[in-house]
UniProtKB/TrEMBL annotation:
Its main location: membrane. One of its GO terms (cellular component) is plasma membrane. Belongs to the G-protein coupled receptor 1 family. InterPro entries: GPCR_Rhodpsn (IPR000276), GPCR_Rhodpsn_7TM (IPR017452), NPY_rcpt (IPR000611). It is a multi-pass membrane protein. The lineage of its organism: Eukaryota, Metazoa, Ecdysozoa, Arthropoda, Hexapoda. Residues 54-312 form the G-protein coupled receptors family 1 profile domain. It is found in: Cell membrane. The chain crosses the membrane at residues 38-63, 75-95, 115-133, 153-175, 206-227, 256-275, 295-315. This is G-protein coupled receptors family 1 profile domain-containing protein. Pfam families: 7tm_1. GO terms for molecular function: neuropeptide Y receptor activity. It comes from Glossina austeni. Keywords: Cell membrane, Disulfide bond, G-protein coupled receptor, Glycoprotein, Membrane, Receptor, Transducer, Transmembrane, Transmembrane helix.
Length: 379
């Protein structure tokens, strides 16, 4: 299990600053290693599968449903895209890093993975910032912002500019990371981590910058927007006349965005604090409890890439109905396929006596499927 020395963002894979004289660490390291190489990849696998199918479903539902082409949903698609990229391009390699004793993918891919981790993390949080700005305009300046928020070209341009800025600003990350050889317990290992030998930025400066840019500043911006909004959102009547249904719809969308922001902040808080304290030399993962805390903190941060589709299903009527339609569609596809198989098998049964028993068993199973399908349709 390789151990990057200064993990950034989502890739904090069990990085320990190991000393040859640290007898306590030598005692529990084999135990922790054996547990981590089994449990953590399983957790990563569950998060990766859930995130892949959930975020893909969100993107497809919005893209192919014209009624859901709102500003908020466009940003939700962008958030799902960032999470999907992380799930596909980062989680598999971090999971492998836990299982393998050495980083097996080489120096170039080490730099790329760390770069993608930072890019997707920033894309997620600043998409939430854009969603909060959209809610602010909709609540505080509903009339003046209506034209601005309704033009698809402007909305798409904001998303494209966001990605261009993030991809450009984070380019130096590739120069700050790479493979490093070290000896944790007298054995030479190769890890993918922050390179202390770089002359561009120190570990502390890098982590403070990452904490401020990917967590503190965006959350302070979001908090300021919502503090300004709160007095207008729940005020009935006011200087802008709205129907009761419009009021409820506006509050539902705003509640969804607020829950997304709070969830992101809570899931990322533990690992952000640990990484910041480690960079300031105030936290050392040299006890069993601290190692476990760091692993749990990383798993929580990873969970942020798969939990949003679940929140949409619980908090948004439109997404819940769309998910239900997709489920019905796939049920009908499976049902239609079974019908075709039954028709084909029935023809073979009439022609060939040797397949009658197999055919009868298939028809029995199909009858059960048909009964379940009809029951669901009726209820």
């Amino acid at each position: 299990m390789s151990s990057p020395q200064v993990p950034d963002g989502r890739n904090s894979s069990t990085e320990f600053l190991i000393s040859e004289e640290d007898e306590e660490f030598k005692t529990f390291y084999p135990e922790i290693q054996s547990l981590v190489t089994i449990i953590v990849p399983i957790c990563f696998g569950i998060i990766a599968l859930t995130g892949f199918f959930g975020n893909t479903l969100v993107i497809l539902v919005v893209v192919f449903n014209k009624k859901m082409h709102s500003t908020t949903n466009l940003l939700i698609v962008n958030l799902a895209l960032a999470d999907l990229l992380f799930v596909v391009l980062c989680i598999p390699f971090t999971g492998t890093d836990y299982v393998m004793e050495n980083w097996p993918f080489g120096d170039t891919w080490c730099r790329i993975v760390h770069y993608l981790i930072v890019v997707t993390a920033l894309a997620s949080i600043y998409t939430l910032v854009l969603m909060s700005v959209d809610r602010f305009l909709a609540v505080v300046h509903p009339i003046r912002s209506r034209i601005l928020r309704s033009k698809k070209v402007i909305k798409i341009s904001c998303v494209i500019v966001l990605w261009i800025v993030i991809v450009t600003v984070t380019a130096p990350v590739t120069m700050l990371h790479g493979t490093v050889k070290y000896k944790p317990l007298g054995v030479t290992m190769v890890t993918c981590c922050f390179k202390n030998s770089n002359s561009f930025l120190s570990v502390a400066d890098y982590q403070i910058t990452f904490f401020a840019g990917s967590y503190l500043f965006p959350l302070m911006t979001i908090s300021g927007l919502y503090l300004r909004m709160i007095t207008r959102l729940w005020r009935q009547g006011g200087d802008i006349r709205m129907s009761a249904e419009s009021q409820r719809g506006r509050k539902r969308v705003t509640r969804l965005v607020v829950v997304l922001v709070i969830t992101f902040a809570l899931l990322w808080l533990p690992i952000q604090l640990i990484l910041l304290l480690k960079a300031l030399d105030l936290y050392h993962a040299t006890t069993k409890l601290k190692v476990v805390l760091q692993i749990v903190a990383q798993l929580l941060a990873y969970t942020s890439s798969c939990i949003n589709p679940v929140l949409y299903a619980f908090l948004s009527d439109n997404f819940r109905k769309a998910f239900h339609k997709v489920s019905e569609y796939f049920t009908q596809v499976i049902y239609s396929t079974r019908c075709q198989q039954m028709t084909s098998l029935a023809k073979n049964i009439r022609k060939n006596k040797s397949v009658r028993l197999e055919g009868l068993m298939f028809l029995y199973k199909f009858a059960n499927i048909l009964t379940i399908y009809n029951f669901r349709q009726a209820h």
